[in-house]
């Protein structure tokens, strides 16, 4: 059940009506309804994995309480590591086992030892990377005595399984979401209206921007050997907007629909393509994951303290882990490595926190520099996205090489029966809308909201890509 | 909450209005188009006279060369549509009759397309802008499982068949962007062999096809001479008895499966190249129109 599907368009209003008109007496009823709705939502993907979700939830709930109850450090450590190992074990088996088995086998073959990997025929449970990280952050926070263990199983289950964030985040923190689940939510019209606007804008990003970009990006990436330099550059740009529209659109819909239930989720995107350096990009892109790695890996490793060498190690550790989190493929690891390499000069020159203010442009020389910073940062991310999108490292390198060796810049007719340059106008309009609304949550509210809402609805209806249906990219992670 | 319900109601009404307005806008644009494809060329036309009208799938579109018919003094147009089934051929002929076309002969390619009565979505979608404007089109689609959505939900058809009649096609129609569908009197010549020269017809079974029956009936009622033919295939075809099976159901269909032999005349196994099409068209003219010289 995708957010942009007809079944979800029925599911959401039903849950909304039940939530505010039938189960609105106490927070217990509200949470009970949301947990039933969330489990139903998840079972629509594959009901068998519901057991895994419930088990994982119960494990973290139980170990959290045991950690808190432990009288000795050894006992506390035992429960902590039990949770970490089992959680990562599930992730390892379902997501990474085949990758490691195949890579190990290749390594053996490389040194002349014949081996064929023993691969598992398993499907990756949807959302496993997200709910595992929910659970891990909760257990780590209890272990580090940052929070108290949650005693109410329904409340805790809802924190892990709340349907708007269950399959593709944002990765919530117990400190942020659990307190909201401990009190009865009262209906707030302004909040709900803002939620609707955010959902609609998210849908624009998904079906108008991302899915349209996808048809071009796929046509270029799938036939990159016959593409000229211009098409290859455009392919990378289209993919950059596809993945941004897809994931930030999903996040907007998740945040928006949560507001309908009186709940606030963590902001996941903050106009990342207006970043002036790669450090700023990572403060604006998939914020809930970046901050997770910052708080649970980077800082425990020493963060920006210690020698430069240690700092470099820490930076590479989180970027490589972040890449690996996305999927069991070397392309994701290289993507992470590239981002770390981009980050390195900023770290070494202590400039990684130099762009913390809001970005703005004026008619002066300084703005030209700012514009160039944004443009060059975008180009660097596009190069990295090629690795993210390509099927293999060889393909990505070949793709990038052809940009420089082909040297032809004429428009090309693509497999999707369109010219390669055709989407640039739509992307330009999108960038301008985003730029003008970069200080807000969504561009619809404010002056002329009625007109802007009508334009968004018209765009969803008339410009959305529906015939070539695409699921959200981040569901595979 | 009352305020919110009002807000959602406004949102729903706005969406509904947008669907209706966009539907009307798109339909109006398509009602004024006659140069983008064979369907709008017929739909938005008045009476025309033809000695020969060619109908069928790509195996008609790529195989009959109207220029050769015209050289013999026969006013001809190839209305074959690549990817089309008999559903669309039948409907196109109905629309021609409705527009009082005077047609002496219809050549219909009836071979592989006899094996099903499904509509070809990619082609039939081009009729959909006119579904509220034409009873003939409405009736043709009325038996389809998605008729209710297509007919009653405003703009549904433009969303569902976005590639065929969606925003992009609308934009090109408004710009009067030319297509190649109507050049060469509808004939589309294929280049030399590039496809695989193999085909497996063992799973195809010809049936009593209601749309072919419909075409026969229309021709009989309007005194049109119907020439039904099976067009050539490459030599490397498995299950060639398919054509015999067709003849066992419809003995009147002329079997030209082997009329053109040699892979040099084929672009792919089921489609002849221009040279093959010219050989085949010459043979058809000789067999059916030589006495009319």
From TrEMBL, chain A:
<dbReference type="GO" id="GO:0005886">
    <property type="term" value="C:plasma membrane"/>
</dbReference>
<dbReference type="GO" id="GO:0016746">
    <property type="term" value="F:acyltransferase activity"/>
</dbReference>
<dbReference type="InterPro" id="IPR028362">
    <property type="entry name" value="AlgI"/>
</dbReference>
<dbReference type="InterPro" id="IPR051085">
    <property type="entry name" value="MB_O-acyltransferase"/>
</dbReference>
<dbReference type="GO" id="GO:0042121">
    <property type="term" value="P:alginic acid biosynthetic process"/>
</dbReference>
<feature type="transmembrane region" description="Helical">
    <location>
        <begin position="32"/>
        <end position="58"/>
    </location>
</feature>
<feature type="transmembrane region" description="Helical">
    <location>
        <begin position="78"/>
        <end position="97"/>
    </location>
</feature>
<feature type="transmembrane region" description="Helical">
    <location>
        <begin position="449"/>
        <end position="467"/>
    </location>
</feature>
<feature type="transmembrane region" description="Helical">
    <location>
        <begin position="118"/>
        <end position="144"/>
    </location>
</feature>
<keyword id="KW-0808">Transferase</keyword>
<feature type="transmembrane region" description="Helical">
    <location>
        <begin position="370"/>
        <end position="388"/>
    </location>
</feature>
<dbReference type="Pfam" id="PF03062">
    <property type="entry name" value="MBOAT"/>
</dbReference>
<keyword id="KW-0012">Acyltransferase</keyword>
<comment type="similarity">
    <text>Belongs to the membrane-bound acyltransferase family.</text>
</comment>
<keyword id="KW-0812">Transmembrane</keyword>
<keyword id="KW-0472">Membrane</keyword>
<keyword id="KW-1133">Transmembrane helix</keyword>
<protein>
    <submittedName>
        <fullName>D-alanyl-lipoteichoic acid acyltransferase DltB, MBOAT superfamily</fullName>
    </submittedName>
</protein>
<keyword id="KW-1003">Cell membrane</keyword>
<dbReference type="InterPro" id="IPR004299">
    <property type="entry name" value="MBOAT_fam"/>
</dbReference>
<dbReference type="InterPro" id="IPR024194">
    <property type="entry name" value="Ac/AlaTfrase_AlgI/DltB"/>
</dbReference>
<feature type="transmembrane region" description="Helical">
    <location>
        <begin position="6"/>
        <end position="23"/>
    </location>
</feature>
UniProtKB/TrEMBL annotation, chain B:
<protein>
    <recommendedName>
        <fullName>SGNH/GDSL hydrolase family protein</fullName>
    </recommendedName>
</protein>
């Amino acid at each position: 059940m995708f957010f942009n599907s007809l079944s979800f368009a029925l599911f959401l209003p039903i849950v909304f009506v039940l939530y505010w008109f039938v189960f609105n007496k106490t927070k217990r009823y509200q949470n009970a309804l949301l947990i039933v709705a969330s489990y139903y939502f998840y079972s629509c993907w594959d009901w068998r994995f519901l057991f895994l979700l419930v088990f994982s939830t119960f494990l973290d709930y139980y170990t959290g309480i045991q950690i808190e109850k432990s009288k000795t450090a050894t006992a506390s450590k035992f429960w902590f590591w039990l949770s970490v190992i089992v959680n990562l074990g599930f992730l390892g088996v379902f997501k990474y086992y085949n990758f490691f088995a195949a890579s190990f086998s290749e390594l053996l073959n490389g040194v002349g030892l014949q081996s064929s990997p023993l691969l598992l025929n398993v499907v990756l449970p949807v959302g496993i990377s997200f709910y595992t990280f929910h659970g891990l952050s909760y257990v780590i926070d209890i272990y580090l005595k940052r929070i108290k263990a949650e005693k109410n199983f329904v409340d805790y289950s809802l924190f892990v399984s709340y349907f708007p964030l269950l399959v593709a985040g944002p990765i919530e923190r117990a400190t942020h979401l659990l307190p909201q689940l401990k009190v009865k939510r009262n209906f707030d019209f302004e909040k709900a209206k803002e939620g609707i606007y955010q959902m609609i804008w998210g849908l624009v990003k998904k079906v108008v921007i991302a899915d349209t970009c996808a048809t071009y990006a796929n046509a270029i990436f799938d036939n990159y050997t016959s593409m000229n330099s211009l098409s290859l550059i455009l392919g990378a740009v289209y993919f950059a907007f596809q993945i941004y529209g897809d994931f930030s659109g999903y996040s907007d819909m998740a945040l928006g629909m949560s507001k309908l239930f009186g709940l606030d989720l963590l902001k996941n995107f903050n106009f990342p393509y207006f970043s002036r350096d790669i450090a700023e990009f990572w403060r604006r892109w998939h914020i809930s994951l970046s901050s997770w790695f910052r708080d649970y890996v980077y800082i425990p490793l020493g963060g920006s303290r210690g020698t430069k060498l240690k700092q470099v190690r820490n930076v590479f550790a989180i970027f490589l882990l972040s890449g690996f989190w996305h999927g069991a493929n070397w392309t994701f690891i290289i993507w992470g490595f590239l981002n770390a390499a981009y980050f390195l000069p900023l770290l070494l020159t202590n400039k990684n926190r130099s762009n913390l203010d809001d970005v703005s442009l004026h008619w002066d020389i300084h703005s030209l520099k700012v514009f160039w910073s944004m443009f060059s940062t975008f180009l660097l991310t596009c190069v990295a996205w090629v690795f993210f999108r390509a099927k293999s490292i060889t393909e990505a390198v070949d793709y990038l090489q052809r940009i420089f060796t082909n040297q032809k810049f004429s428009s090309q007719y693509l497999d999707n029966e369109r010219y390669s340059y055709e989407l640039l106008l739509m992307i330009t309009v999108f960038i301008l809308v985003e730029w003008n609304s970069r200080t807000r949550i969504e561009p619809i509210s404010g002056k002329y909201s009625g007109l802007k809402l009508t334009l968004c609805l018209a765009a969803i209806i008339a410009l959305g890509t529906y015939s070539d249906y695409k699921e959200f990219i981040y569901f595979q992670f | 909450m009352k305020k919110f319900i009002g807000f959602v109601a406004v949102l729903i009404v706005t969406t509904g209005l947008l669907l209706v307005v966009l539907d009307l806008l798109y339909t109006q644009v398509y009602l004024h188009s006659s140069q983008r494809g064979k369907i709008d060329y017929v739909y938005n036309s008045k009476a025309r006279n033809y000695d020969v009208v060619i109908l069928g799938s790509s195996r008609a579109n790529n195989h009959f060369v109207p220029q050769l018919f015209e050289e013999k003094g026969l006013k001809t147009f190839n209305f074959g549509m690549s990817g089309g089934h008999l559903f669309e051929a039948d409907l196109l002929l109905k629309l021609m009759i409705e527009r009082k076309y005077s047609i002496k002969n219809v050549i219909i390619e009836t071979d592989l397309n006899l094996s099903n009565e499904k509509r070809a979505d990619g082609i039939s979608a081009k009729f959909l802008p006119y579904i509220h404007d034409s009873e003939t089109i409405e009736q043709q689609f009325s038996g389809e499982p998605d008729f209710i959505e297509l007919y009653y939900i405003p703009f549904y058809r433009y969303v569902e068949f976005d590639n065929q009649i969606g925003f992009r096609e609308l934009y090109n129609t408004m710009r009067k962007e030319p297509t190649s569908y109507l050049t060469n009197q509808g004939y589309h010549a294929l280049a030399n062999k590039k496809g695989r020269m193999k085909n497996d017809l063992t799973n195809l079974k010809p049936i009593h096809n209601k749309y072919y029956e419909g075409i026969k009936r229309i021709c009989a009622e309007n005194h049109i001479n119907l020439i039904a033919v099976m067009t050539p295939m490459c030599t490397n075809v498995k299950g060639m008895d398919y054509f015999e099976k067709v003849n066992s159901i419809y003995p009147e269909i002329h079997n030209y499966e082997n009329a053109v032999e040699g892979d040099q005349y084929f672009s792919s196994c089921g489609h002849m190249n221009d040279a093959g099409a010219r050989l085949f068209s010459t043979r058809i003219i000789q067999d059916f129109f030589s006495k009319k010289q």
